Amino acid sequence: MLRKNTIFCALSGIHTREDVVNMESSHVNAILVGEALMLSDYAPFKARQLLGPNRLPPSMVKICGIKDSLAASNAIHARTDLIGLVFAPNSHRKVSVSTAQEIVRTIHSIRCDRDPVKLTPPNHFYTTNPTRWFGKWSEILLTEANRKKPLIVGVFANQDPKEVNEIATQVGLDIIQLSGNEKISSESEYVKPVFKAVHVGNDEKVEDVIAHIKQYVGVAAAILLDTKDPSALGGTGKTFDWSIAKEIAQHFPIGLAGGLNLNNVSSGVLEVRPFLVDVSSGVETYQEKDPQKVNAFIEMAKFPFDPHYEAKRNALIQKHREEIEAKVAKDSLNGYFPGRFGDFGGRFVPETLVEPLEQLEKAYWDAKHDPAFHAQVTELYRHYIHRPTPLYFARELTNLA
Predict the structure, then answer these.
(1) I need a labelling partner for 353 at 20 to 30 A (CA). Which of 66, 67, 94, 319 fits?
(2) Is 223 helix (H, G, I), strand (E, B) or coil?
């Protein structure tokens, strides 16, 4: 007879997420994974796949098309991870170098950390395949964004690399995004790490898109999948077939762009599981950034809510109850019935407490999947934990120091 609180551990045969789910349904408490990680292209990415979507870090958010310091300040206070400044020609969101410099000064004045941004490329070991390369870069970007939120991205399209580098240096960009049909010859061609937009049509084949992306291993820090549109290179407000992005995201981290808004960002994050989401027109009102939409979008991207959650939850609870009832019936037929549900678990409480316990359980699940609740808890952890008052940036004291 095993003692209570015994931990059951599966020691072998774990290669896919389905294997982990099967172990969970068999009440296994822990798994030991060795061979699957050793044979994978990039062990951290494989580990995240095994753990499943609920254990992934929240997607990073890039608010693109910022045109003035006020919009930048609003996005920063909404806790965006990246801010995009557009320098691409023929875009109504294009900003001048002087305006961009003013916006960057505003961002720097709000950042508490005065150290420079450190986006050091991975070494040659990671260039052997896209999973390693983009997996390592996603970790670098997430770490630095948490330290230096927000990172500043300059968006260009089919412009001369010399012009791009000059603007990046003059403005003080952290990242260069290429949204045209550029060919990147080497990582050193640009003075900052590069995000490369890859435009995807609904009739694209996944293997063709992956083959196209592989040419950017060793030269681009991240891939943004955007909607292919013959009339524009971005900011169209149109989506593409997310099943393509979902399949690509099984191979390496990708960013998701194109047509994201308050109505679909949660679904996009839950379906694709991108490490980054990029929005511009989806948080605008009359072609201007709307602070309320920006704040709501970031919350929904960080804490996506599944509209079908209640149905899934009820189905899961019903299945669990049916399994328990079947086990109780089997044990009673075999004459083995030492407790209501056997030796190892079950619920034995007075009937008057059953309904309050079910209400408590429902409240727990509702809170667990409530983006507003998570946002409030995150805010408390970030600013108040172990402190009677919130953290704030002491600008005058800093200037004196």
Answers:
(1) 319
(2) strand
